[in-house]
Amino acid sequence: MRTLFIADLHLSEKNRHITDALFAFLDKEATNAETLYILGDMFEVWIGDDEHTPLMDEVAQKLTQFSEKNNIKIFYIHGNRDFMVGKRYLKQSSMTLLPEHCEIDLYGTKTLILHGDTLCLADKNYQRMRKVIHNPIMQFIFNALPLKFRKRIGWKIRSASQSKKVYKDNNIMGVTESEVIRLMELHGVQRMIHGHTHQAYTHNIVVNDQPAQRIDVGDWYTNLSFVEASHEGVNLVVLPINYYQQ
Questions:
Q1: pTM
Q2: 165 annotated ligand binder
Q3: Does 123 carry a binding-site annotation?
């Protein structure tokens, strides 16, 4: 029995190779898993469930076929790019939404899973913006706008974010370790699995005076990465993006 975790694929029409890599991963690696967790930012940008692009529909169909054929549960946590994914698309793609900080029992070990953007407290501009865009009233107003306006807003935010990244220090973009410790102590866990920072790595830390782990799943830009958990343990796997297509 295996459980798999992926994050930060940032699927878009411009990066077809990542979509192909995901589909190959599902067909050749994930079929014998019992559960698949997607820890946010599966899509590059999301402006509403009513935007029916060929990519959105193709991904939803693939996930549903994968889930039904192999009897595998798919769970999803919102990322900072696709926090507007709603009930309609979740149902269409056979995914179950989880809270932003979610405790799971991972083969006997209580584990905290999350996207990871809430860990980056040094990025104060983003954290201020996050409070605004995650406000239910603001989301309601945004969804009420015509689709063409939401598209413009979504891509303007995306472009501005990309430009700012060039000038940001790694200390700002990375997680705040004190927040990691605080959350792990709050939830009473010795293991955390997250995405967002795009830096696939297993960090050995100390929480409550005991050995602990923080595992960053990594992105799918030039490599594909996933966390594989079983009764034998937890491993972070990083492979060439076309590994399952060779």
A1: 0.88
A2: yes
A3: yes
Q: Is 134 annotated as a binding residue?
A: no
Tell me the two tokens of residue 179: 């927040």
Return the closest-CA partner of residue 83 out of 20, 149, 14, 136: 136
Is 8 labeled as ligand-binding? yes
Say whether 148 counts as a known binding-site residue. no
Q: Which domains does the chain have, with CATH numbers?
A: 3-245 (3.60.21.10)
Which backbone phi and psi does 215 adopt, to 5 degrees? -110, 120
196 marked among binding-site residues: yes
- Tell whether 203 is in a known binding site: no
- Give the model confidence (pLDDT) of 168-221 as tens digits: 445 455 899 999 999 999 999 999 999 999 999 999 999 999 999 999 999 999
Q: Which residues contact 105 (CB under 8 A, 6 or more apart)?
A: 111
pLDDT digit string (tens) for 52-96?
789 999 999 999 999 999 999 999 999 988 877 889 999 999 999
- According to the annotation, is 41 in a ligand binding site? yes
